[in-house]
Design a protein that fits this description.
The protein has 333 residues and is of the alpha/beta class. Helix content is 37%, strand content 26%. A six-stranded mixed sheet has the order 5-4-3-6-7-10, with helices on both faces. The protein has a three-stranded antiparallel sheet with strand order 1-2-11. The chain has a two-stranded antiparallel sheet with strand order 8-9. The protein is rod-shaped.
């Protein structure tokens, strides 16, 4: 039975249980009610029965078929097709503020922090089909890479194009957060979220991170902060060769977790520490689960009723029975 087939009133199908009783009635009790002639010797009457006599059982069969067709008609067999339409009831606007300072080239995540982040961030974007997302890049200064948009291709391309060296050196967490706030503060979305990622300590910029977090709180913007980097030592870029290649040296990993925790707590978000590729992926998956967009799905059903066919079929069987009964099998009534 195809998936798009159903009975509107399937309880009527229980009437099929009467069919065996009707068969018994027609072929057993019915035979007893027919007239018979008893003779002492019937040798003179022994002749081969005609085909009409042998096929008269077709009359009750036609009636049973008519009754069966009527049962199916009562059960209202029908096919249907379904079309769907979704409506986003509560959209979420998200700005991802990403640190692109030189320390993001550290190799404690593979192949480095920045490339690992880009891969995870693109996967996160692809899992948010109903939200608008913007990208802010920052180091010693900040700029908007992509305004808040629903065009996922543009967002993915912008993340892929993030590189070190395009901005002044340093880590200006306050400026990164401030730029993200400016990008989302006028949003009409039901929920406004900033994901702020850094691997260092605020050491430059003219915007105080705490002041920026207070502004975010007043604007009802939730900030999730992520500290990126292993515990202990990691290979950091320390100088550049004449050919443009970088020299790496083991240095102590330093992240201002106190500041990041305070920003998250102030705005109603959460702080996460990503010490590996796997943990970074799990963090974005957790944020994805926490920030759910309410999507309402509407289903439209188009029905094709089949009962008329079964009624006509039942009528055809009854008509055929009546025609045969009063013509071909008239002498057996």
């Amino acid at each position: 039975m195809p998936n798009n087939f159903e009975f509107l009133h399937p309880n009527f199908l229980w009437l099929f249980a009467l069919i065996p009783l009707l068969i018994v009635w027609y072929f057993w009790i019915g035979n007893k009610n027919r007239a018979s002639l008893k003779m002492g010797n019937s040798k003179g009457l022994l002749t081969k029965g005609s085909w009409i006599a042998k096929t008269r059982a077709i009359l009750p069969i036609l009636r049973l078929l008519a009754i069966s067709a009527l049962v199916v008609a009562l059960a209202r067999s029908r096919t249907y097709s379904v079309s769907k339409k979704t409506k986003t009831n509560k959209g979420i606007d998200i700005v991802m503020a990403i640190d692109v300072s030189a320390s993001m080239l550290a190799k404690d995540l593979q192949p480095n922090r920045l490339e690992s982040l880009k891969k995870v961030a693109i996967n996160f974007v692809n899992k948010r089909p109903n939200d608008r997302i913007g990208i802010v890049a920052y180091a010693g200064e900040s700029f908007t890479k992509t305004p808040v948009t629903s065009d996922k291709d543009i967002i993915v391309r912008s993340i892929s194009e993030l590189n070190w060296g395009e901005l002044e050196g340093g880590t200006a967490i306050g400026m990164g957060l401030g730029s993200a706030i400016n990008r989302i503060k006028d949003s009409k979305a039901k929920s406004k979220v900033i994901i702020l990622l850094t691997d260092g300590v605020n050491n430059t910029g003219f915007v105080d991170p705490i002041t920026a977090s207070e502004i975010a709180k007043d604007l009802e913007i939730k900030v999730y902060t992520i500290g990126l980097g292993t515990n202990g030592m990691a290979l950091f870029p320390v100088s550049k060769n004449a050919n443009g290649s970088l020299n790496f040296q083991n240095q102590f990993v330093e992240i201002d977790e106190v500041l990041l925790k305070k920003i998250a707590k102030e705005t109603g978000g959460r702080y996460f520490r990503a010490t590996s590729n796997t943990k970074l992926k799990k963090i974005y998956e957790e944020i994805n689960k926490m920030e759910k967009t309410e999507v309402e799905e509407f289903k439209y059903y188009n029905y094709d009723e089949q009962f008329r066919f079964w009624v006509l079929l039942a009528g055809l069987f009854l008509l055929l029975e009546m025609l045969l009964k009063f013509t071909v099998y008239k002498s057996f009534i």
